[in-house]
Amino acid sequence: MDSPSSANRQRRNGCRIVLFPLPFQGHINPMIQLAKILHSRGFSISIFHTRYNFPDPSNYPHFTFHLLSDGLSELEASTLDTLRLVKLLIANCVEPFEQCLAQILSPDDLICRVVCVVSDAMWYFTQAAADKFKIPRIVLRTSSVCSFLAFCALPLLRERYLSYMDSKMEAAVLELPPIKVKDIPRLETHDGEDMYRAIENMVRETKKASGLVFNTFQELEEPELAKLQEQFLMPTFTIGPFHKRFSAASTSLFTQDRSSISWLDAQAPGSVLYVSFGSIAAMDQQKMNEMAWGLADSMQPFLWVVRPGLVRDSEWLAMLPDEFLEATHDRGYIVKWAPQQEVLSHPAVGGFWTHSGWNSTLESICEGVPMICSPFFGDQMVNSRYVNDIWRIGIRLEKGLERGEIRDAVRRLMVERDGEEMRQRVMCLKEKAGFCLNSGGSSYEALDALVDFISSFTFPA
C-alpha cells in the first residue's frame, strides 16, 4: 500500500517519534496503530505510557517503551468513574512526562534524535513540556471530526442551552446541525466542572500544536473538516481508517473469545446482529433487562458481548434473566469479549448494535455493516446523530433502552426495507474507505504529507 523511496526511508532512520496515548482501550488502539504506521515509514518509535493499563512491550518488539509513574492508588485505579480517573491522570502525569521527555532528549543518543511528540489531545499539558524543550507537538484526536467540533463549541453550547437541556432535549442546536440539545456532550462525573475545564484546556492547547491528526477519512467528514480548518490554523491530517492498515488485536486489554467466530461460521449470511458497547460503558440492571428482552422479542440471531462490569455491581451472566437465556439459547451467543474487526467482517453479521464510540463506528463503516446506536456519553452522542441523520447508515434509539423500541429497531435494521437501504449506503462508504487508502487516495496522500511534515522538523526544505 505504501511505497516511500528507500532514500527517504533511510533519511528517516535517524528520527525518533515519542507517542503518548491516553491509557484507555479506545485511545490506546489508534495511538499504537499510528505508531505502527509511522514505523512502517522508517521512523523509530518510543511509547510513553502510564502504569495504568500498561501494554505488554513484547507485542511490539520494534518499539521502545517508557513507563511513567501515574501516582494512582489501587482504589483510584479501580474507580468506575472514568472521567474522574482521567482528571487524576492529567494531574499526576505532568511531572513524570516532563522528566521522561528530558531524559530521552539528552544528547547521549546522537544516532536517533527525537524530532517530535505525538500525544493524545486530552494530554493537553504535554504542549507546555514540548514548548519548554522546543520540540514540535502533534495532536492525535481519537474521535470523529464532527464530535471534536462539538467539544470545541462546548462552552458556548452550555451557556446557550444549559438552562433547558433537560426540558427541551429534542430542540435543534442551531450552531451545529444536525445536533439536538440531547446530543450536546455531557460529562457525568462527580468532578463535572473540573472536566469541562479540562475540555477547554484540551481545545486551547491543541490550537498551539504544530499539527493535528484524525483517524477518519476526508470523504466521510469533508464539510466538518472545512469547519475545523477555520478554527485550527495548522496542518491537519486525516489518514484513517487506521485499522485497515494495522489491526488493533494486539492492543486489546481483554481476552478475545474466538469461539464467537466458530459460532458465526454456523449462521446464515447477514442474519446475525452483533451487540457490543465497548470497554467502558456501564448500565443498571433495569436497562440490561430491557436490552435482553428487546433482543429476545426481535426473534433475530445475535452475538452479544456482555463485558464483566457492564452492569454495575453484578456478576457475569447473573445480570441476565434466566428466562431470557432459556428463550434465546438456540439463536443467541454471549461472550465476555470478541475479536471485533473479525466479527464485523464475517459474512454472517448483518448489523451492529453499538455504543457509537468512534473506533467501533469506523470499523462498522469499513466493513459495510449498518448500525443501531445507543450512545452513553461524550463523543458517542454526536457520532450516533451523524450515523442516523447525516450518513443515514443506522438507527439511533431515541428513547434510551426500551424493549419495544429495541425490538422494532432490530427488525427494521435486519429484515425490513429500511435496513437494506442503510446497508446499501454504508457499502458505498466502505468502498470510499477502501479507495482513500490506495495510491492517489485522500488518506494515502495525507499520510505522505504527514511523513514529509515530520521529516521537515529535522530536514528543513
UniProtKB/TrEMBL annotation:
SUPFAM superfamilies according to UniProt: UDP-Glycosyltransferase/glycogen phosphorylase
GO MF annotation terms: quercetin 3-O-glucosyltransferase activity; quercetin 7-O-glucosyltransferase activity
Record InterPro entries: UDP_glucos_trans
Keywords: Transferase
UniProt keyword Transferase present: yes
Superkingdom to which the source organism belongs: Eukaryota
Family designation: Belongs to the UDP-glycosyltransferase family.
PANTHER family noted in UniProt: GLUCOSYL/GLUCURONOSYL TRANSFERASES (PTHR11926), UDP-GLYCOSYLTRANSFERASE 76B1-LIKE (PTHR11926:SF1464)
Listed name of the protein: UDP-glycosyltransferase 76C4-like
